Amino acid sequence: MVSWCNVGFAKILPEGTPKEQYDFALHFVKIAEYETAELALKEFVDINPNHELAGSAQYWYAETFRIRQYYLEATSAYLDGYEKYPNSVKGPVNLLKLGLMLVYIGEWDQGCSMMGGVNEMYPNASQSVLQRAEFDFKRMCKNPKQASKWVKKAKQYPGHLKTKTAEEFKQIEMASMIDKAKDTCKSLGFEEGTEKFADCSLKLYSQSVELAAKQNQQIVVQGQSSGSNVMTIYDPVRDSNAAIKRGQGLINGTCTLGDLSTC
After folding, report:
1. Rounded CA gap, 132 and 122, in Å?
2. How far is the C-alpha of 127 from the C-alpha of 147, rounded, in Å?
3. Across-strand partners of 220?
4. Looking at the chain, which residues constitute the CATH 1.25.40.10 domain(s)?
5. How far apart are CA 24 and CA 141, in angstroms?
6. Separation of CA 8 from chain center
7. Is 261 exposed, middle or buried (0-12, 13-18, 19+ CB in 10 A)?
8. Distance of alpha carbon 229 from alpha carbon 207, whole angstroms
9. CA-CA distance, 40 to 45, in Å (whole number)?
10. 8 A C-beta contact, residue 94 and residue 88
């Protein structure tokens, strides 16, 4: 158990250099502890607003909302990154994600303008970002019907934590962890749809599940009045074996997120 006592504020980051604090905050993103990552990254930006890593921290702060499908909050966070840290190493992808979020919340013209401007504003960005920006621009801005489907889907998630059940949270976390595993396996050269790709994805996903399970903890926050308030960090994999089994079913296609009972 990790605990901090403060008046109305839970300090997440440990003592250390800004780089050590940044790595600590980013670790929660890597293990899919997005609630805690949100708090830690926000704290990092607040106390290190001019550090060279502040732009990256702001980007990942926005990502914690996007991954959880809190599109309004994500839009606001990406916009802060665009306005405050345009020259950050995450500047190009931050602008791309800002454009996507604007489309998702119904600001189609502005969002498409942002996505269409990535190449012009950041001509030296990585090819993967530039190609993704071009792809998403064509997908969302040259196909209004497709964009309208995303807008309709986004409206199902008004951006309030209490609107989601624990099971919905588990599904989102699981899907994110699987997507990360698949992306890594693709980058390693495994061809999607092959047995080796499935084995690679399952292995990486299982490692993420086991790591997240080991990180399960509580933060105890001393309230302003007598007594303590306890905030439990969300753990998406309280039953590691079941989570791994479900992940295997999702990877090999024997079940879907919509019906995890068949996994």
Report:
1. 13
2. 24
3. 3, 230
4. 2-154
5. 37
6. 26
7. exposed
8. 32
9. 9
10. yes
Whether domain 2-154 has CATH 1.25.40.10: yes
Task: Quote the CA–CA distance of 41 and 63 in Å, as a whole number.
Answer: 10
Contact call for residues 103 and 111 (beta carbons, < 8 A): yes
pLDDT tens-place string over residues 175-233: 767 777 788 888 788 888 888 888 888 887 777 776 665 544 333 222 333 333 333 33
Computed from CA positions of residues 56, 27, 234, 223, in that sequence, does the dihedral angle turn out positive or negative? Answer: negative
Whether pTM exceeds 0.70: no
In sequence order, what DSSP letters do the residues of the chain get, joined into one string?
A: -EEE--SS----SPSS-HHHHHHHHHHHHHTT-HHHHHHHHHHHHHH-TTSTTHHHHHHHHHHHHHHTT-HHHHHHHHHHHHHH-TTSTTHHHHHHHHHHHHHHTT-HHHHHHHHHTHHHH-TTS-HHHHHHHHHHHHHHHS-HHHHHHHHHHHTT--S-GGGS-HHHHHHHHHHHHHHHHHHHHHHTTPPTTSHHHHHHHHHHHHHHHHHHHHT--EEEEE-SSSSEEEEEPP-TTSSHHHHHHHHHHHHHTS-BTTBGGG-
